Queue: 2 jobs
Job 1
Amino acid sequence: MGRWKISWGVRLFFAAFLAAVMAVGMAGCQAAADSKRIVRIALGQSESHPEYVGLVAFKEYVEERLGERYEVQIFPNEILGATQRAIELTQTGAIDFVVAGTANLETFADVYEIFSMPYLFDSPEVYKVVMGDEEMMNGIYESTDRAGFRVLTWYNAGTRNFYAKKPVYRPEDLRGMKIRVQQSPASVKMMQAFGAAASPMSFGEVYTAIQQGVIDGAENNELALTNNKHGEVAKYFTYNMHQMVPDMLVGNLKFLNGLTSQELEVFREAARRSNEVELEEWDRQVEQAKKTAMEDMGVEFLEADVEAFREKVLPLHQEMLEDNPHIVQVYEAIQEVNVRMRETGVEASAFLGEWKPQSAMEAGRSMRWRLDWEFGDGEEWQWTE
Ligand code: GCU
């Protein structure tokens, strides 16, 4: 495992090759749909997942308004490839959209490391307020423009927690354990700070890796137990709540730029609505998932000493801020919401209007500045195992 540098030339050649393969494979579908432009969306999750439900709302909204010109097709269950691969396909335009966790975007724009920072948000309420602040998020969403894609909206992926073959109550229990993390440098650092061995791999590989004992456990939300069946192989889920990592609806920039302004507004509004539908569906499904995991799969939900977990990784905040200056302003803006929520006990949304023009706008500006810096040398960090 390690990080290696790969030139843009090699990346583009690989991506072009995949694009050609996809184009041949999908030519048949294109012809069948007459002259309609097929809009393809890659999703790692299954057809019952809240994100699929959200994407159906996206599809319906677009087709109701632009159905003569566009047909939206959703490809779930990683059938177009694991997330990292699907992002590359979106980057080249072989497909038009992908739903990807921010951890998978870190290698394209390191501002996304912010969401891998453990215990960044005080509560799900703070998280939702920050994510719902379009002005602030737009600065972040634009950070991948040079990589050829742009985020349109976010989806809730809940709170991440440990789950394993044996119970974990305290950070010490993780000693000697090998835990899967997402393919993100920041997540690897986090796991090391917790005292476990980090094993980065794609989401689709986790079930078999736990089953075969390649790893001792993983970390994720409750739906991973049921929708992805991890509860069949890992029976202890610890509520230590170390991260809230959103998923993003990522669109190929050339495709978006090729739309007329009216069409673009339809796609944007469709994305907004899919976000609303997904968030509602998430809240509904998470309770059900917990019940199913307990009653049908025999998973035990453990209350953890959250403070002990937090203390263990808090020094990482400073370290990450020193290593990556591009996350500093977003971090400060989020801390501001944390503090105000703590001090006032008032719903953060009540003071968001006042907060927004200051730190959030600044954060957006710093994102745009960062882009030139990051891609200036024509090379990019790429993760491999
Ligand atoms: C969640 C998230 C996915 C992500 C996965 C992972 O399920 O919704 O987008 O890929 O976690 O841990 O890889």
Note: The chain is about 50% helix and 20% strand.
Job 2
Amino acid sequence: MALPSRSQQTAVDKEGHQWWQHAVFYELYPRSFADSNNDGIGDIPGVTSKLEYLRWLGVDAIWIAPMFPSPHVDWGYDVSDYYNVDPDYGTLQNMDELLAKAKQQDIRVLLDFVLTYTSDQNKWFQEAKSSRSNPKRDWYIWRDGKGPGQPPNNWTSLFGGSAWKFDPASDQWYYHYFYPPQPNLNWRNPEVEKNLFDVTRWWYKRGVAGFRLDAVDVMYVDSQFRDNPVVGTDKNAFGDPVEREIYDKNQPELHGVLRRLRKIADENNAVLIGETWTSDIDQLRKYYGEHNDEVNMPMDFMFTTINKLSPADFRKQIQWVDGSGGWPVYVLSNHDIRRVYDRYGDGQHNDQIAKLMASLYLTLRGTPVMYYGEEIGMENNDPKRPEDVKDSMGKAGWPKEKGRDGERTPMQWNAKANAGFSAVAPWLPVGARYKSYNVDIQKKDPNSILNYYRLLLSLRHTNAALLEGKYIALNEDDPNVLAYARIYQTKTVLVVLNMSGVLQKVRLDLASKDIHAHPAKTLLSSFAAPKQVDVDEISVEPFGAWVGEIQ
Ligand code: NOJ
Ligand code: CA
């Protein structure tokens, strides 16, 4: 008898978990994933052509960074039309084909919903800008200046300079938290909410399984437009004063929008991932909603700010999010964050460290969101000269801030020209090591990072303790080794991660956690470990990872 496909399985399992709680998500940057028509730019048919690969790897859902029509001031995060596909990436028909083929492969497709601001080329903004009395004027945030040439207040843009841009034609300023061509929408206007919500309904009908919500923290600003307090006298990378962003961020009203958006998602068996940058766990907790009725998957970015192999820091962060009451969502890198290989690599054991970090975020209780290329150990390929920079953030901030091109380079498929991404030179240069770090070569090597990822994904889909088990920290004082158990009913999986460059003989303190210390069977290890392991003393090689199950 054939097993039901994943999409046919019941909505909730016996532990009350829904599909997205057991799924592995994979973020891909459409411009850099696969180029089907050899113009140097990745596209939607390119993504479709790689679904089989993603299924082989064990991915359940993809989140596609924005593929809507856009002038690409911020590479798609400046949307000029929410109801179409950018011609660089294909057509709506290509999108429908992707959705249909993905369904066949049991892969769900999520889009990136840029709901806080639009492009200034969006017809909504064009109308709003046309006159002060235009009915859409209030869809954006317009204010008079404090005086001639003076913006309404001191708020600064994340990408440098004032967050206000003057429009001489109407003699008012409009607000943009990001680039000037990204005017913020006025979510206090009910028409904005209605129109943006309709966008999600339209895509759900086409078969989309959810959205990653962009920049939700800056969706609202203070209704009185008060100045932010300035901290000290230092300037940031753009030469702006450093502000405490209390009036342009995290305004309480945004939670109402998230609750209403969630309701529509629930009606469509869809899921919302949040771009939820927070500075403490209480802030993160708010995004789940008081009744777990806001963002299903607020990403824990505090996890990504741990930039060294520090068991103590990881332990603390895991404990916080695991005990938060919400379902943890683990991320290590994305299109805004430097790749794992660079952040944690020591230059000598980078492959081992890539496997170590994979073993961490893919064995925790929660949902992991992978970033394309991490599974083959891609590294950052940062621009060397200012004239090569494609990311406006790098253009504005050079040389202090080189921008995010480095983590957005083309996926490395094989050792042929341009890493098999395209027949012509790609929009960003391919990483220097692509001849050995590519999918083709690593598929053939049983010890590759890619095959290690594949085994890990398979394990987390089939092992009951990894699927359902609670998280129990072990050896909490160990400065070198991060160890924990995942326990479900009679099953106990142990995870031992050596974050140091020397061999560690680990004596797991199981007794104090009431875990019986029978021998364990190795399920997966990044080094040659015996099949049976005595848990009284587990030898773990430098930067090695060991995952085993108590017998
Ligand atoms: C969040 C996106 O992740 C980032 O890439 C983008 O630059 C900002 N939003 C602003 O649009
Ligand atoms: Ca193309």
Note: The mean pLDDT is 96.
